[in-house]
């Protein structure tokens, strides 16, 4: 079990977390302004992509493809999906202040990623 955890940690650290938006949709907010939607998928105990760039206030959907629950939680409290069960999707709203927001799965804290707001 320890070997599997170490292998997962190493693969998470060496994964190609290229920056860039993975969004492929848009919705409108209450004022009718288009809001870009970005997606993060959890699979094999990794966030994919590990880093995304979004607009301030963008909707970010997080889908869990693993058989165990995960979260997307930032230490500063800006982002928190709560538990996401197998094949469930939850949405969080990106902060409005530009910057880098690092997050983890609060259940499996070796799972990490970054949301860049610009």
Structural account:
With 118 residues, the chain is mainly β. The protein has a single domain (2-117), classed as Immunoglobulin-like (Sandwich). Helices cover 11% and strands 39% of the residues. The chain is built from one helix and nine strands; from the N terminus they run αβββββββββ. It has one helix at 2-14; strands spanning 25-28, 34-43, 46-48, 51-54, 59-64, 73-74, 89-93, 99-104, 112-117. Strands 1, 2, 3, 5 and 7 form a five-stranded mixed β-sheet that branches. Strands 4-9-8-6 form a four-stranded mixed β-sheet, with no helix packed on it. β1 (25-28) and β2 (34-43) form a beta hairpin. The longest helix is centred in the N-terminal third of the chain and has 13 residues, at 2-14. It is globular, with a radius of gyration of 14 Å.
Keyword list:
disordered N terminus, five-stranded mixed sheet, Immunoglobulin-like, 39% strand, 118 residues, 1 helix, mainly beta, four-stranded mixed sheet
Concise summary:
This protein is mainly beta.
CATH class: Mainly Beta
CATH topology: Immunoglobulin-like
β-strand number: 9
Rg over C-alpha atoms, rounded to the nearest angstrom: 14 Å
For the termini, the CA-CA separation is 40 Å
Regions with pLDDT < 50 over 5+ consecutive residues?
1-29
Tell me the structural class. mainly beta
Sheet with the most strands, sense and barrel status: 5 strands, mixed
Compute the number of structural domains.
1
The succession of helices and strands, N to C, reads HEEEEEEEEE
- Please report which band the strand proportion falls in: under 5%, 5-15%, 15-25%, 25-35%, 35-45% or over 45%: 35-45%
Annotated CATH architecture: Sandwich
The tally of helices reads 1
């Amino acid at each position: 079990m320890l070997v599997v955890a170490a292998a997962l940690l190493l693969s998470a650290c060496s994964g190609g977390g290229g920056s860039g938006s993975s969004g492929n949709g848009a919705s409108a907010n209450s004022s009718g302004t288009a809001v870009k939607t970005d997606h993060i998928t959890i699979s094999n105990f990794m966030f994919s992509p590990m880093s995304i760039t979004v607009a301030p206030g963008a909707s970010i959907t997080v889908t869990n493809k693993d058989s165990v629950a995960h979260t997307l939680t930032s230490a500063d409290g800006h982002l928190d999906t709560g538990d996401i069960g197998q094949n469930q999707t939850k949405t969080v709203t990106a902060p409005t202040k530009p910057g880098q927001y690092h997050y983890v799965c609060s259940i499996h804290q070796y799972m990490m990623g970054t949301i860049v707001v610009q």
